[in-house]
């Protein structure tokens, strides 16, 4: 039984990863126990047919009267046609980053311990039915405001479910955040524009430098030195483009010990010296 990498198999024609993504899924033959590597958290809004998902210690089955929010992970699922020999659902994927941003914006950051459960069952009502009907991959593709509109749809369903289920749904959302990864990324990304060295950031992460580099490369698919330099140089470019600052004003804050090294790195990346931008 081959492993299906979802949503990657639905993104084959797209050049970049997406933080929020809708896919209309249809089939006309039963599929029993697919092996699925789900790399993003996902709403499964089933409209026609039945779905059963098998986890390590349990399973859950839903039909069109219910929806599922599934935690990313390796699952087995069974999809069965209805009496009209069709299966149709809308899949709504969202990244951990978008979830973290949402929780920071609308909920408290500290929650009591919540046992990690891989799914949350949603009882469909008229509002959710209307929301599902408003989702279509065709609506959110290659349009000027598609990404912004899709993010609003994400916030809409999240806020409605928070209102509908209260703390139980809020706690579930917090349980979806990978605690170790989230803490690691928060430390790294909060120090992008600091002048801390890799050793110092590794210390803040409670890691040796070698462990930090290995963990970083696994998370970001790029060595930390290059990743941080690119981020900091991009920030430097943005600061200089305002016209209010000179290279000598910012090189220390961007993590460089002297102006010469900063100027060389800047020119190597952008093909122009920082003084040419600030003038």
TrEMBL record:
Keywords recorded for this protein, A-Z: DNA-binding, Transcription, Transcription regulation
Cross-referenced SUPFAM superfamilies: Homeodomain-like
Domain spans labelled HTH araC/xylS-type: 182-279
Pfam families on file: ExsA_N, HTH_18
PROSITE patterns linked: HTH_ARAC_FAMILY_2
DNA-binding keyword on record: yes
Keyword Secreted appears in the UniProt entry: no
Superkingdom of origin: Bacteria
Single GO term (MF): sequence-specific DNA binding
Protein name, entry field: AraC-type DNA-binding protein
Database matches in SMART domains: HTH_ARAC
């Amino acid at each position: 039984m081959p492993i299906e990498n979802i949503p990657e198999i639905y993104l084959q024609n797209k050049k970049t990863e997406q933080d929020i993504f809708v896919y209309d899924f249809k089939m006309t033959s039963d599929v029993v126990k697919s092996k699925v590597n789900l790399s993003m958290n996902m709403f499964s809004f089933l409209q026609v047919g039945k779905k059963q998902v098998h986890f390590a210690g349990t399973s859950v089955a839903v039909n069109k009267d219910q929806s599922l929010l599934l935690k990313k992970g390796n699952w087995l699922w069974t999809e069965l046609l209805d009496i009209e020999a069709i299966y149709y659902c809308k899949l709504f994927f969202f990244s951990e980053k978008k979830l973290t941003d949402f929780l920071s914006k609308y909920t408290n950051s500290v929650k009591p311990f919540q046992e990690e459960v891989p799914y949350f069952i949603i009882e469909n009502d008229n509002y959710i039915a209307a929301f599902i009907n408003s989702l279509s991959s065709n609506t959110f593709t290659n349009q000027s405001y598609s990404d912004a509109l899709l993010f609003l749809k994400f916030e809409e369903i999240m806020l409605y479910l928070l209102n509908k289920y209260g703390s139980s749904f809020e706690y579930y959302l917090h349980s979806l955040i990978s605690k170790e990864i989230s803490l690691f990324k928060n430390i790294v990304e909060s120090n992008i524009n600091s002048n801390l060295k890799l050793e110092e950031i590794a210390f803040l992460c409670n890691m040796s430098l070698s462990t930090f580099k290995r963990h970083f490369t696994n998370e970001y698919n790029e060595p930390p030195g290059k990743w941080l330099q690119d981020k900091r140089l991009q920030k430097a470019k943005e600061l200089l483009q305002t016209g209010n600052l000179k290279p000598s004003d910012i090189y220390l804050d961007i993590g460089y010990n002297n102006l010469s090294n900063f100027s060389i790195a800047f020119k190597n990346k952008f093909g122009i010296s920082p003084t040419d931008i600030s003038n």
